[in-house]
Amino acid sequence: MSMSMALSSISINFTHPFSSLVNSGHPLTNKPIRKTKNTNIQCTLESENSPKQPYNKPLITNEDSDTNKPQWNPFQKTLASIIDKFESALNSRELQQPLRKTADPRVQISGNYFPVPERPVVDSLLVTGTVPESLNGVYLRNGANPMFEPLAGHHLFDGDGMVHAVKINNGAVSYACRFTQTERLVQEKKHGRAIFPKAIGELYGHIGILRLILFYTRALAGILDLRRGNGVANVSVVFFNGKILAVSEEDLPYELQITPAGDIVTVGRYNFDGQLNCAMSAHPKIDPESGELFTLSYDFSKSYMKYCWFSPEGKKSPEVDIHLSAPTMVHDFAITENFVVIPDQQVVFNISEMVKGGSPVIYDATKKSRFGILPKYSTDENSIIWIETPNTFCFHFWNAWEEPETNEVVVVGSCMTPPDSIFNETEEGLKSVLCEMRLNLKSCKFTRRSIVEENNGKVMSLEVGMVNRNRIGRKTRFAYLAVAEPWPKVSGLVKVDLESGEVKRHNYGDGRFGGEPFFVPREKNDGVGEENVKEDEGYVLAFLHDEKTWKSELQILNGVDLKVEATVELPSRVPYGLHGTFVEAKKLVGQRLETKEKVEVKN
């Protein structure tokens, strides 16, 4: 697969997802959710449908001009028509049966998970309270936001990447949101519909196998171009070496640019100047001391992963192949000052399960869960120390550090049960428990404890969040995490003392829910010496949505006591999303812009 960057001129238009259905109101709330046979089945997205509030018809730019449509020869046109008819029949057959809740769009993108249109910059937003003087820059949050109506199954994670940007300039605040113009989305816009298979929502059972056959037939015939990747870039945002990168783990990252006005422009697919020819982790780690970026890459069909790192100037290290017993999902990992912590857990990919009529993403109880401790600058896998971690599955890790006096690496993460419930239906409700895990490098002993005590026999579910990013890989005392209750909604955020287990909680209020809290630490040179900056000095940013008024806002909280410093009223709804970052104003000035052609933004 060719990994050359696509740096052609890209126009970003104010378009509405599912635009053909806008005039009929909320398209997915007019149809009842199919009932599954087992009414006790739980899934990660099982929320109430949104209020049937009418959409104002947006300004839609015509993207179906003859110049944008695919230019096919007669053979391609005939074959495309045959495939489309077969696929339509396949969709009709699938929709005659009850969809899994983990793949039913009427569940997965209902309520405030429903996609929104792009929004050009709106400035001079109403602020209640006072934006802290030291908070200048742009808050960027990524998320899944399908442009086209799902034709069959759809999981939340299948949506196209959309980044929401809140720019703060000396107390003045602006907002914009844009699709990341991935190669996948650009091709689908030319076709006028979703044409790439949804990795989770559609690749299931025998019908999923047929979809793969149709997909690769289109590619072999030149109807689709897979040489430039098929990722959605919808998980996280990273700032590294002067570049803003939108990331998801199935492809290369996409470079974004923030304009002086606060708009978002897609520069193109980024391969680190030709050095990277494989996918990058959805959660790469930047060492705050060295400035290096560390990342993993896994393949859905191969029993190994790749590990590498980049110098602060972007020079890539040799890749280290780490062999596993099965193709394994590795969504996140951790670093310490000297090591990288690599999870080899029990959620695996097994295509043969589709032949049996199931999902290729499964929990394999026969596989041993383990963590690998690898020196950060290793050139091969021989020095890795594997430590078994029974009954442990972490979707996210918040930090890790070394304690030499006990020969231990300490890992802090949220342990999730059931492990595969994000992808598959289960009769057991999902829990995500904040844990401290200790890995002894000499004895290879593993211990785990819950950091937050139970309340009336119930453990608080804590997901998506972070520690002070200036202390990644070093011992930290505090973590800022989302209260994922009632799952999958986020009813508030907490500041957890990782030593004592003490919890400070900020509730959003009745009918109000949010997402990932992002902690922006106080700058070391902000009038005080580095040694005098406390770990929790800074501010927490969090998007919030009111499901009664159907309005969204950004809250800015004090990192010490979680008191609200300011609330920014946003001009349009912000769906519940995934992960983000904050880029300081001085770093925005230094963005490295290497586009070969003019990048145009249209309102």
Oligomer: single chain
Helix content: under 10%
Round the mean pLDDT to the nearest integer and report it. 82
* Shape by Cα distribution: globular
State which percent range the strand residues make up. 25-35%
- Number of E-state strands: 35
CA gyration radius, whole angstroms: 23 Å
Task: State the major sheet.
Answer: 6 strands, antiparallel
Gap between N and C termini, in Å?
34 Å
GO molecular function: carotenoid dioxygenase activity; metal ion binding
GO biological process, one term: carotene catabolic process
Cofactor: Fe(2+)
Binding site for Fe cation: 283, 331, 396, 579
Task: Write up this protein.
The structure is a single chain. This protein is mostly beta strands and 603 residues long. Helices cover 10% and strands 32% of the residues. It has six helices and 35 strands. The strands form nine sheets. Strands 3, 29, 30, 31, 32 and 33 form a six-stranded antiparallel beta sheet that branches. Strands 2-6-5-4-34 form a five-stranded antiparallel beta sheet. Strands 7-8-9-10 form a four-stranded antiparallel beta sheet, with no helix packed on it. Helix 1 runs antiparallel to helix 4 (205-220). The model is unreliable at 1-16, 19-66 and 595-603 (pLDDT under 50).
